[in-house]
Design goal:
CATH topology of the largest domain: FAD/NAD(P)-binding domain
Radius of gyration: 22 Å
Shape: globular
Distance between the termini: 31 Å
CATH class of the largest domain: Alpha Beta
Strand content: 25-35%
Helix content: 25-40%
């Protein structure tokens, strides 16, 4: 294979697809080379015995401002989680609602048995400021760890350990809350303004929807890339020449293709376990957190929110454990007891469907963390372009933004009028 194109994009994850969409929309001849057998990168879904299993617990937050630029959310047929968090505290489940979505749920914040009155007030004021301040102001706040920001805001330790840490452990994939407060502040804003959802056909429907707008033949699957430089890509099938090359992979793959040109972030890992159970009265589409233990990051009867995820008469339960606190047996008695306590039912008869161990689920963002990293990297007097959530924030939003930023840089350097 010997071709000459305008741009070669390496990787058909969200960043690569967003980059290709932007470049193709300006009339450039673009080719996307993907090593795996489908689009999506880390956003993939499998079908197993009638169940839809996302590769790791993943959520599409409708508050992400970049999503409408690339996809019609209505076309994804989204299924929303219950607008509450179920937190297990002091041996009982406490429901915490979002007052912006259900004003009557404001009273649920007052029933949380941690923090005391002033601690709950401090937490509410902190969250309200994250929602009210412009995003530019949030990004400009002091770049300290989330733990330090909450401590400075007067949020008591029992509120952090009972509510904030259990929730953000599943978002940040870490227990120490060392992540930059600038990112957690933005996530508080997104969760307050948006809804946590999944597409009815699984999370992979998101990248598939974006890819469907590209011209036929743009994406070449099962095409691993061996080497890159600023004007050429070498694959297992041959070489492709281009006016620009954009590496849109995870940071660890990108670093192997661009040695000595990138600093590697710390990897955040998670293990997600899927169980099947007969329908049970306590099953709910509410995300459940354990404020009394750090064993499980979260668990949810996922098919109660998205019925299409399970065959009729069965319930699909998704549970995640952050790396660093993974027990010896992820489906052992300790995990089963925790699930029984959180879901309020006997779990001994639940069937294990699949386990996804993902050591590189997210790039870490410990403070201080630049909210944006360069998408141009110097390469022998020229440029190679890089995109991915590691160039912005470790999120779907960050991946899409980085793809658009890389495309803008390519367009500018090639002299293409926007």
């Amino acid at each position: 294979m010997t071709e000459s194109l305008d741009v070669v994009v390496i990787g058909a994850g969200l960043a690569g697809l967003a980059c290709a969409r932007e470049l193709g929309g300006h009339g450039l001849d673009v080719r996307v080379l993907e090593a795996s057998d489908a689009v999506g990168g880390r956003v993939r879904s499998d079908r197993v015995d009638g169940f839809t299993l996302d590769r790791g617990f993943q959520v599409l937050n409708t508050g992400y401002p970049e999503l409408p630029r690339f996809v019609d959310l209505a076309g994804l047929d989204l299924r929303a989680f219950d607008p509450f968090l179920g937190v297990h505290l002091d041996g009982r489940r406490v429901l915490i609602g979002n007052p912006l979505q259900r004003p009557t749920s404001l009273t649920t914040l007052l029933s949380v048995p941690v923090g005391g009155f002033y601690g709950r007030l401090a937490t509410g004021v902190y969250a309200a400021r994250c929602v009210a301040l412009p995003t530019g102001r949030l990004k400009g706040r002091s770049d300290v760890s989330s733990a330090e920001a909450w401590r400075s805001a007067g949020i008591p330790t029992d509120m952090v350990n009972g509510v904030l840490r259990p929730f953000f452990a599943g978002v940040l994939l870490e227990q120490g809350m060392t992540t930059s407060r600038r990112f957690t502040d933005l996530m508080i804003r997104m969760f307050a303004l948006g809804r946590s959802t999944v597409p009815s056909k699984g999370m992979q429907a998101l990248p598939e929807r974006i890819a469907s707008a590209l011209p036929e033949g743009t994406i070449e699957l099962s095409t691993p890339v061996r080497r890159v430089d600023s004007r050429q890509v070498e694959t297992t099938d041959g070489r492709v020449s281009a006016r620009a090359v954009v590496v849109c992979t995870d940071p660890w793959t990108a670093a192997s293709l661009l040695p000595d040109r990138m600093s590697l972030p710390e990897a955040r890992g998670v293990t997600t376990v899927y169980h099947s159970a007969p329908d049970f009265p306590e099953a709910t589409g509410t995300l459940l957190l354990d404020g009394d233990s750090s064993l499980l990051a979260n668990t949810i009867a996922l098919s109660k929110a998205a019925p299409e995820y399970a065959p009729k008469g069965r319930v699909l339960i998704s549970s995640s454990v952050v790396h660093g606190s993974v027990p010896e047996h992820v489906d052992g008695p300790e995990v089963r007891r925790a699930l029984a306590r959180l879901h309020g039912t006997d779990t001994s008869h639940w069937e294990l469907i699949a386990t996804y161990d993902l050591p590189h689920a997210l790039p870490g963002m410990p403070a201080p963390h630049p909210m944006r990293k360069p998408v141009r990297l110097s390469y022998d007097g020229d440029w190679v372009y890089v995109a991915g959530d590691h160039r912005d924030t470790s999120s779907l939003q960050g991946a899409l933004v980085s793809g658009r930023r890389a495309a803008s840089a390519v367009l500018a350097d090639l002299g293409v009028r926007r």
